[in-house]
Design brief:
The protein is α+β, with helices and mostly antiparallel strands. The protein has a single domain, classed as Jelly Rolls (Sandwich), CATH 2.60.120.590. It has helices spanning 27-40, 91-103; strands at 12-15, 18-21, 57-62, 65-69, 72-76, 113-119, 125-128, 140-146, 149-153, 163-167, 172-175, 184-186, 201-207. The chain has a 7-stranded antiparallel sheet, covered by helices on one side. Strands 7-12-9-10 form a 4-stranded antiparallel sheet, with no helix packed on it. A two-stranded antiparallel sheet has the order 4-5. A hairpin with a 2-residue loop joins strand 4 and strand 5. The longest helix is centred in the first third of the chain and has 14 residues, at 27-40. The chain binds N-[(3-hydroxypyridin-2-yl)carbonyl]glycine (MD6) and fe (iii) ion.
Length: 210
Amino acid sequence: MTQTGSLFSDSFEVLPGMTLLPGYASSSQLRPLITRLCEASPVRQMLTQRGQKIQVHMTNCGSAGWVSDSKGYRYTPIDPLTGTAWPTMPQPFIELANRAADLCGFPNFEPDACLINRYEPGLQMGAHQDRNEQDFTQPIVSVSLGIPARFFVLGLERKGTSTPVDLSDGDVVVFGGPARLVYHGVRKLKPAHDPIWGPYRWNLTFRKAM
Ligand code: MD6
Ligand code: FE
């Protein structure tokens, strides 16, 4: 992570409203925080509305957390696994997301939800839109940690040609404005080893959900 947002010059516009900040986040800084969050609310496999297991292991922090179960996708203030509130979002998480959004033209981003995803090799995430949030004027900030992944981006429809975006440890993607509702997903992960995260890829997505 840079000392101040304005010193970070290495950014790349993937599409209008979608910017990649290569290496903006620090795994060595984030790992102890993620470890602690996962002690309070462990990663788990959620179920789809149809009762199928979602392969990626997930948890959340913040005043709202993304869940999927027989009632569908939504945000809840309570972790259904522990029966208590999701862990508080750590201040370094809030600052990382807020500074990244600011650099990309979205000032005053105040995330209230952070979805924490853990992928292992062989897993993927199908094309989807993130549309369970209340306010689409607010961006989503996505932080990739651990082994690399190929992210792909479509347009406002789930068809057509995709744009590939290779994401490595520390890369941050900000999705907002005209890109806020584009379809996107993650290609099947290849086996790899990361010095901090071992065989896993972790992804944090910061949202203003409520
Ligand atoms: C992932 N990310 O990178 C999944 N969604 O593992 C997402 O689904 C995502 O990266 C909205 C905005 C940014 C993202
Ligand atoms: Fe998404």
